[in-house]
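Q: Here's a chain of 344 amino acids. Please give me its 3D structure as tokens.
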Amino acid sequence: MAIDNRNPLPDLVGAARYEGGADDVLCLDDLHVSVHNGAATAVRGVSLRVRPGEIVGLVGESGSGKTLTCRAVLGVLPPGCAVERGTVSFGGVDVTSLSRRNWERLHGSHMGAVFQDPASYLNPVLTVGSQLTEVLRVKLGLGRRAAHRHALELFEAVGLHQPERVFHQIPPELSGGMLQRVMIAIAISCDPQLLVADEPTTALDVTIQAEVLELLRDLRDQRGLAVLFVSHDLAVITQLCDRIVVFYAGEIVESGPAGEITERPRHPYTQALLRVASVGDFRRRELEVIAGQPPRVGEDITGCRFAARCPVAIPECGAGPVRSVQVGDQHQVRCVHAAKTVVT
């Protein structure tokens, strides 16, 4: 049973209304994130939206800026990293510069998160049930019995069999797939509007991976949950997401509806990701690789950041900044070749 927590956002001191994208759960506008105490920019000009009940997938190689973008969304950037400019809007409210106290009011109640290694986010000596009920008691003000009852409902909702037994187990007694389900139960326990899922299936075997993806789809359908899902594997993204956003070297190089991106990819990097991902086939086998290496984080490059690895690069690719152009219904691509085919 879902908790009715769809009330307006709390009064956040220092936050302002954001006029653009007020109907979206999440809106990023020209987000730049610096690293090494401002010495370099790792995320450049990222703009995207996540609507209620929508699953948006961020895909790209390690170091492409996906996780830094998610951490900016959650207000938990690592030391030495900061939002350089741009806006993070949640529910129509600019949350870019919130205080730590205000972020704590949003976490859990309005934003949930799950990450790659669930065991590292759970206390290994406390039962998983006690860790979930603590969240319910602190965030929702439930009494001990009500919290216990709702915890069992949540464990059942995320597909954990024998929820009472699981409630009394400690993390080392559970498999990786079960631990990830526990983390998802904690993340959705207060019925947030947004779930940020950063590589939640990477460490799982293929069968469990598919089960977790199905669970996230079910939660979206049942609760109207908006999901920002991160993976380096385009095959996984394609299985789950409504829209796909492709990152390369800190920039968005292509974005659009999942079907259009996978059937008609326009950026050479997206095309390469599709070749190596073997979309629709989760069997592990030897696949192609993308030749070359991505640029160093924050490296200053004139023109297309993928040009050094691109099989169709031309001198124009490095001549200056490459703009993102519309190539289809809600489909944008940052490529000089695509720009040449667009009638303006």
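Q: Can you summarize the key feature?
A: The longest strand covers residues 40-50.
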